[in-house]
Amino acid sequence: MRKDFLFWGARLERWLLRVVVLCAVMLVTVQWFVYDPVVRTVSKVEDQYNAGSGFNSEDLDHLVTFQMLDYTTLPRAAVLVNGEKKESFEHRYVTVSVSHGDVLAIDTKYYKHPVSFKVVETFGDVVWPVKGRVYKVEGTTKRLGTVKIGDSSKGEH
Hints:
Layout: H1 2-34, H2 37-51, E1 63-68, E2 74-81, E3 84-89, E4 93-97, E5 103-107, E6 114-123, E7 126-128, E8 134-138, E9 141-146, E10 148-149
Antiparallel strand pairs: 1-4, 1-6, 2-3, 2-5, 5-9, 6-8, 7-10
């Protein structure tokens, strides 16, 4: 009788250990997706679009996403579109909507140390800025250049 009890106890212990490990893996996975900066940035853009806060469907046709390389957050650093502040780096990633001919700039006047930014992704037919390009700004507002949007109808003919 005692031997039978130990057998069931060992099996129960193995199953409990498996359940605990599975729960730990699920917890880490959920936290990864909940706190992933890219997912949060995309969600923020979707929320602004759904709330009708100045975005329309044409604004979401062309997007540029910047990543701050040296720091995780610098809330007083900002992306300027045509001289107007569009987004600040409250998180490592910032996505702004752009149109052909918009002038992009990054403002880091508040900070005395150099900060590097990378164009992580462009959406739509954005030809410039080029994905993967890194910009270094040191305590000033740096003009990056003029946005160029490609013509998607050229490839259809």
